[in-house]
Amino acid sequence: MTTPRKLAMLAVLALGLAGPQYGEPVNPDATREARNLLAFLVDIQGRYILTGQHNFDASGSKYTNIVQAITGKSPILWGSDFSFAYKGAEPQKFQHCGPINLTNPGEPLYYIDVAPALARQKMVETAIREHKAGHIITLMWHAPPPGFGDTCDGAQIWAMSNRPTAKEWEELTTDGTPRNLAWRQQADVIAGYLAELRDAGVPVLWRPYHEMNGVWFWWCDQKGEHGFRKLWIMMYDYFVRHHRLNNLIWVWDTNAPRPNPGDEAYAYEDFWPGAQYVDVLAADIYHKKAAQAQDDQRNYEDLLKLANGKPIAMGEVGEPPSPETITQQPKWTWFMPWPPFGALARDNPAKLRALYSDPRALTRDDVAIGADGTYEVLRK
Predict the structure, then answer these.
(1) Which range of residues forms the domain containing residue 174?
(2) pTM for the whole thing?
(3) Cβ distance 136 to 50 under 8 Å?
(4) Rounded to an integer, what distance in angstroms lies between the CA atom of residue 324 and that of residue 290?
(5) pLDDT (tens digit, 9 = 90+) per residue, 19-30?
(6) CATH number of the domain that residue 358 is part of
(7) 240-295 confidence digits (pLDDT tens)
(8) Alpha carbon distance 44, 23 (integer Å)
(9) Which of 169, 261, 315, 338 has the CB geometry, 3.0–4.6 Å to 282, for a possible disulfide?
């Protein structure tokens, strides 16, 4: 019997998709667990969407637990951040991203006396525990510029107009230069934690250097062949070939393009590293307005076209998608609200309950993860 998935595989192969076969990880040495996770994303695309929730280092699984309290169901995707420790004069400007040593956004601001190494270790241990409880893990890294280690003023991450010059970018992405070696030192630290997850059998949806097509982070707005593409491939090669982090599914996480003056996000393809280096394409969707519905649909279709059969996802959202959005844009494989935005803080909780009751939205209770690392949808 020819299944829908086999037909999809044949169709994509007929198009001559470059790189790995359809549904195969870009890393040929990917672990069984990582392979099974990617195969699951391919299987559900167009039929289901995974519910998700980001959490901050300072509060464990707080926001996942809030969703469960509101809906009676736990989001299956558990997200967090290796983050950074804030050091500067205006912490209130950077609380929104959840630095390791600050309280959560929307809460009274104060410093938490915790070293980055301890905070990250606790986060990794929480991720392992949540994976054993049936969650899928996605992680990111608000990375300070190379040379700053784990601690910096947030303005050095949100560099805006003070992004690296062409010469500085070339030095960063050239093997063996001082700036490149400083990058390796930082990357080695994060790789050590990802290796703990690998050794615990935890596959990770890894989405480093997110929103690279925007204008706000130090890694943003580096277009073309020698731009962001070089940084992405450099990390891929270092983590896969040097550190053997074969538990990673590589999620290239953009921002939905927008023309907002001073807050632009440019076309996806100007930052595309190539199909051989990306497993999943994602977009972060914020600042939505009713008048932007047509742009949202076009951005979705553009990402789908660039993906050429690979899964796509809502890497971060300020608002969880409505059932109507899922109908209009059925190929999204997951969504992940950034706390405390969206239905958790300002909307009628009934909207979130309605979404979690949609038969297409999969929660932790709707998916069984087998002892062999395979996934089965229990909802029929």
Answers:
(1) 23-377
(2) 0.93
(3) yes
(4) 13
(5) 455 689 999 999
(6) 3.20.20.80
(7) 999 999 999 999 999 999 998 889 999 999 999 999 999 999 999 996 665 566 78
(8) 12
(9) 315
